[in-house]
Amino acid sequence: MTDLSGRSVLVVGATGGLGAPLSRGLAAAGARLTLAGRSMPRLQALGLDGAHLVTADLQHPTAANDLVQAALAAHGALDGVVYAAGVVAFGGVGDLDDDVVDELLLINYLAPARLARAALPHLSAGGFVVNLSAVVAEQAVPNMGAYSASKAALTAFDAVLRMEARRSKVRVIDARPPHTETGLAGRPIAGTAPRLPKGLSPDDVAARILRAVTGDETDLPSSAFA
Ligand SMILES: NC(=O)c1ccc[n+]([C@@H]2O[C@H](COP(=O)([O-])OP(=O)(O)OC[C@H]3O[C@@H](n4cnc5c(N)ncnc54)[C@H](OP(=O)(O)O)[C@@H]3O)[C@@H](O)[C@H]2O)c1
To answer: What is the CATH number of the domain that holds 171?
Structure first.
């Protein structure tokens, strides 16, 4: 079992529908938190006293490294990184503008890859990286090609990182939850969401991810959320 009490954990995308319950769960488990989002008022609204709050736009190439340095400066150590930021877009493979595809790949794949690269040399033995991929990395869904590709890229990256990080005794959990009622599908950067069946509860998904962290699991496929 991994005890989170006193562990220094950086949550990126802490203001999101999944990032918020993940942050609350980590705080309840006694973790010392660095919480990152784009908006200081939204970070403050989480009400997690004692957490170090940092704003950053992940479109900036140094943001991931800056966040790792902020967590190290705040807590003097880094034991875990949770990447819960992300954007979605809907549209056929020929419909999306290059700018939209660039942002999907940047926020959903490049930024977490940069974060892991920046964090890995500092993560303590027994530490962890959690990346939020998605069920669409496993299953093809029409009108979600670019989003799915960005998530499949992250899942492929995580599979290699998991092997490479093992020698540092760092676990990599690639979480691939099904549709979850965070409102993400209602704020796409392009297109319109299709009618979706009712999704999972964000609190339940966050709790399942945290159970994987404390329970020393090494992967979280979509089937783990059933
Ligand atoms: N909801 C689902 O159905 C579902 C299912 C599977 C996987 N996922 C994945 O889970 C992760 C979290 O999703 P969610 O549903 O919690 O979405 P969400 O509620 O929209 O939260 C997204 C988070 O990403 C942050 N973000 C977006 N663009 C950013 C940027 N350029 N710079 C910094 N932060 C940025 C947002 O910050 P702001 O507060 O500043 O906007 C917010 O904290 C995503 O990777 C998503 O793909 C979601």
So the answer is: 3.40.50.720
